[in-house]
Amino acid sequence: MPADKPANIPGICYEIFVRSFCDSNGDGIGDLNGIISKLDYLSDLGIEAIWLTPIHPSPSYHKYDVIDYYDIEPEYGTMDDFRRLLAGAHKRGIAIYLDLIVNHTSTLHPWFEEARKSKDNPYRHYYWWMNQDQIDHLGISERETSHDSQIVYPWHENPGDDEKYYGLFYKGMPDLNYHSEALREEIAKIVHFWLSDVGVDGFRLDAARHVFPEWDSEQSLTFWEFFSKIVGDANPDAFTVGEVWAETEEVAPYFRNLNATFHFDLSFALQRMLIAGRDEQIIDKLIASFNLFQKYNALFVNAIMLTNHDQERIGSVVGGQIAKIKLAASILLTLPGQPYLYYGEEIGMLGLKPDPYIREPFLWTADPEDPQRPSWIKPEFTTLKTVTPLSAQRNDESSVYHHYKNLIHLHKTEPALSQIFAPNLHPVRLGNDQLLAYFRPHADRSLVVVHNLGDSEVEFTVPEDKSIFTEICFSTDPLHSTTLTSNRLSPHSSIILAPGRMATDGQKQ
Asked: How confident is the model at residue 479 (pLDDT cuts 50, 70, 90)?
């Protein structure tokens, strides 16, 4: 979707690492038919959009090194399977976003196999090639590591060739060079195929800030202008969310041409706050980021998450403490934006790096031999000894699963929480950094949200200008049920306050 066009944006999104979600055929690998079998589960949970990690043919377990942009990884299924998944999702009102990798391909992609043959090959210009003298002259033989790439030496040998190719993430993933008009035409065809011919609803765009290398980085924003026009031509309602793993100031200009970007600053701030039990003035920082984003796009979408497939799972970040796992969800689903849940967060899955162990199989049942549970990896963190499976959590009203489900329902039914455009957020200052409090104003019904980040009970007083907010519409604190009767909040608890029933329409704020 062109970044200046409003649309019915899905509110609750769900990231699926396909290999680890659900196995339909007993080969130990999650697949598209497995996801189809769980569409009713996702719909019942309240999911409105699914982001699928890459589904194209690829030699790796994660599939971020694409061999063919027009086909489905055979381990995951067929194009017919994908079309059935798309139709099943749409029948339930669920959008499908594909992970589109435009920064690089696999070295096994036919383009690169041709490019590496000779300097005269027409595909040579699809990638970045330099000899050592050119690399040294530009001073680009080394780079500083970043959150999204630990590679220090990004230039890689091509046997028998005096030129090296550039691969930011790994020698098996050479970066594409969009100075090539022929390559741009190829990308346009790929976008049109998936949006127009197949009918997907949008793309999650991998490594968006790296689509041009660091020495040519000013071209990246120009590329996304080109890309946005292609998307608009293929499907004016398609949605784009970019992975711009950087600080807010660098992220903001990408909103010119993308509908959304993931808010990594918020993700890491929430993790620090949950560990320390202290607020970092996150509401003031969020408001400042919103003011910056809207300079580039008044209809920006703030894509928010706790963690994703490249980060250690929030359950492990907070030491497996169920109360903190629930608190993390309470914060995420009451802040403005478009929340993305990483599969398994709703059952408290655990995971620490290296990467395969933050992508472990979903626990559907307590059966150790559950055939729908992928077995491609022996899990180290999410096991039947450490995490309660979904089947048991569904029968426990106090479970992480029911906490998520209740919060998602609240998010979708309270207009103050579900507003995405023009984020409605103001700080509520309670004079204690153990408390995180904010105001979500709305014409229908405004809300005050208070979280106790700390390990001890804390006193608080609702400010005078919010004194009519006495009705509790959500609480994880046993001290409070339907009405605010105490000025204390239990550790790691949250309450959401609405105007009391006696408040007149004129008093509602």
From this structure: confident
- Do 225 and 269 belong to one domain? yes
Best CA proximity match to 362, nearest among 29, 53, 43: 29
Q: The domain spanning residue 71 has which CATH number?
A: 3.20.20.80
Domain that holds residue 118: 110-166
* DSSP of 48-95: -EEEEPP-S--SSSS--S-S-TTS--TTT--HHHHHHHHHHHHHTT-E
Q: Residues 168-205, buried b or exposed e (16+ Cβ, 10 A)? A: bbbebbbbbbbebeebbebbbebbbebbeeeebbbbbb
Q: Is the pTM of this model over 0.85?
A: yes
Report CA dihedral (193, 198, 204, 205) to the nearest 10 degrees.
-10
Residue-wise pLDDT tens digits, 11-38: 999 999 999 999 999 999 999 999 999 9
What counts of helices (H) and strands (E) characterise the chain? 15, 18
65 within some domain: yes
Residue 145 inside a domain? The answer is yes
Q: Are strands 338-342 and 13-16 parallel, antiparallel or unpaired?
A: parallel
| Conformational region of residue 401, where left means phi above 0, alpha means psi within -120 to 50, and beta covers everything else | alpha
Active site residues: 206, 243
Looking at the fold, whether 31 and 126 belong to one and the same domain comes out as: no
Q: CB of 313 within 8 A of CB of 20? A: no
Q: Are 495 and 475 in contact (CB under 8 A)?
A: yes
Phi then psi dihedrals of residue 436, to 5 deg: -115, 120
**Which residue(s) pair with 146 in the sheet?**
149
Whole-angstrom CA distances from 375 to 316, 345, 371, 452 are 21, 19, 9, 39
Does residue 311 belong to any structural domain of this protein? yes
Q: How far apart are alpha carbons 453 and 276 in whole angstroms?
A: 8
